[in-house]
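Hi V.,

You were right to ask for the full record rather than a summary. Here it is.
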Amino acid sequence: MTGRTAIQLQQISKYYDLYAHPQDRLKQMLLGRWRQYGNRFWALHDTSLQIEAGEVVGLVGRNGAGKSTLLQLVVGTVTPSTGKLDVNGRIAALLELGAGFSPEFTGRENIFMNAAILGLGQDEIRARYDDIVAFSGIGEFIDRPVRTYSSGMYVRLAFSIAVHVEPEILVVDEALSVGDGVFARKSFDRIMELRDKGKTILFCSHSMYHVEALCERAIWLDRGQVMYDGPAPKVVNEYGIFLASQSGEHAAAAADAAAPVIVAEPGKARLTRVEVTVDGRRGKTQAVQSSESTIAIRIGFVSDPALPCPSVAVGFIGAHGAPVTSAGSQNDGVTLQRDANGAGEVVVEFPAFALLKGTYSLNVFLMCERGLLIYDHVEGHTTLEVSQHGLEQGVVTLPRNWSAAPA
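Predicted structure:
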């Protein structure tokens, strides 16, 4: 699809008529020519976008901003009220995983039915059947009715079908953490594989880290309109400034809507935010002055409140992949804090950054309270390009005192 437009919206609007009483809907049908009996809600208003084949585009915004409506329009589950929409290429959606499954059919039967709906012929489905089953990890349950599946098995099979139809366009709505920890990693790796193959990906998430990690471009929606469209780091930064600028009771309510309560799954913990600044600047690649710059790493997390509060660690990796140094909250005797939902945040600063000239990358880990079990991690989050004054050799500058006297 290279060189083609994958998704194009031309002045698209989508509205819903909301009625206070059921009979008002009938009145609208019969008498709506002369009077409006409901309130019109505009989920999207006069939106124009163009996404080229091979682009990976993130979608950000507060709840109710129109993100889900936009995704549903692209997928075709809803139709626009006005405007023109063109989608070119086979599309697979990870919106409501398993929504099209028939509970009385077996997993095998649902594979053939759903893959056919997504555009595969019978021979193509047979050729990919073994890979779909192996990826899902369903095993012997594949020939049992899906109504007997656990919720985890249900979504694993749905995800496996969606990513094995080799879509030209993949639409993802907060689906990177499906299933257990092992499968969540497999699912993310599979999406990254599709990205590396040049597939078009439209990705909606409340996780700004994932948007920056996965997407080169992002679109910020608010109240059904495009507020900003540009490079992902810039859009995420502008969106963050917007949220931070809210003040007073009205702003607090808006912030609550923008950041829904995140609750960890039982027995699990995950990173929700990683933000790195160098002397107050953000960016995926940062210029650092040895012995002068201050590096601050802000880490957000959520964990099952029934578990002990987790710990975090950061590691700096050299150009050849070898660890240079690290720091951990558990090792440093720092106890993290979290709210009743298990959400917390911690900042670690490195003043007068001591590494000498070279290129380093940053890894971040969310670990158990003892610093042993890794719940979640991010590798290569930020690249640090360190320069220095003087001719010191090695990887680190050590504090020292000199004293000199005549012999």
